[in-house]
Amino acid sequence: AQRVTQPEKLLSVFKGAPVELKCNYSYSGSPELFWYVQYSRQRLQLLLRHISRESIKGFTADLNKGETSFHLKKPFAQEEDSAMYYCALSGRPGGTSYGKLTFGQGTILTVHP
Amino acid sequence: DTEVTQTPKHLVMGMTNKKSLKCEQHMGHRAMYWYKQKAKKPPELMFVYSYEKLSINESVPSRFSPECPNSSLLNLHLHALQPEDSALYLCASSQPRGKSSPLHFGNGTRLTVT
Predict the structure, then answer these.
(1) Does residue A32 sit at the B interface (CB-CB below 8 Å)?
(2) In this complex, which of A94, A99, A104 lies closest to B94 when CB atoms are compared?
(3) Of A6, B16, B44, B67, which has the fewest Cβ atoms less than 10 A away?
């Protein structure tokens, strides 16, 4: 079974402070991990995927297979980062569970001025 | 065109009505999905179509009936729904198995069952 855990429902930081949104997963195999973001009144959109190893809007996430974690980090939070963030997991391409995206419960990030 | 378009944006229906939700994409994706999202909850997978064939049905009640008439379109037919079916219904598309591709989501249809 595949499972994603985001332990923090709510996270509040001040502008300019570092932020880390935690994500742990459970999967028997090699998964693909994603972070999706949902800004107020906007569609759910992809923020990061672990295989790209890129930085989007200043956010990075590193897959730690030993700790089965994929935490999302940004060194200096901005007010426009306030949104709902979902960590998600899918099986690898070619596998039976590829495309079956399992989401964590989400973390609402609020960045105060 | 890099968008997934869903219509209608809002839908109110009675428990005896029959209605359909529509989803369209022109990105050449051959996998399409229906997700259900309740307020402040993550999306839950309902159905997956791969190459226009139903590949995953997450034990969804038969009052929800998906249809994929061609590679660009995905419908969700609704009949005899219950008030607890009120939710945001999201359509998504991606490349199918064998090709790594994230899901692209539509804006959703907000459904209210009265």
Answers:
(1) yes
(2) A99
(3) B16
Span B57-91, pLDDT tens digits:
888 999 999 999 999 999 999 999 999 999 999 99
Chain B residue with minimum CA distance to A95: B97
- Tokens encoding B64: 């929800």
**Mutating which of B48, B103, B107 best tests the A interface, going by the most A Cβ atoms within 10 A?**
B103
Burial classification of residue A46, based on how many CB atoms lie within 10 Å of its CB (0-12 exposed, 13-18 middle, 19 or more buried): middle
Q: Say which of A42, A51, A100 has its CB closest to residue B48.
A: A100
For residue B33, give the amino acid letter.
Y
d(CA B102, CA B85): 27
pLDDT at B97 over 70: no
* Contact status, residue B1 vs residue B99, Cβ threshold 8 Å: no
Q: Does B90 contact chain A (CB < 8 Å)?
A: yes
Q: What is the pLDDT of residues B16-26, one digit of tens each?
A: 889 999 999 99
In terms of DSSP bridges, do strands A72-74 and A60-61 run parallel, antiparallel, or are they unpaired?
antiparallel
* Total residue length of chain A: 113
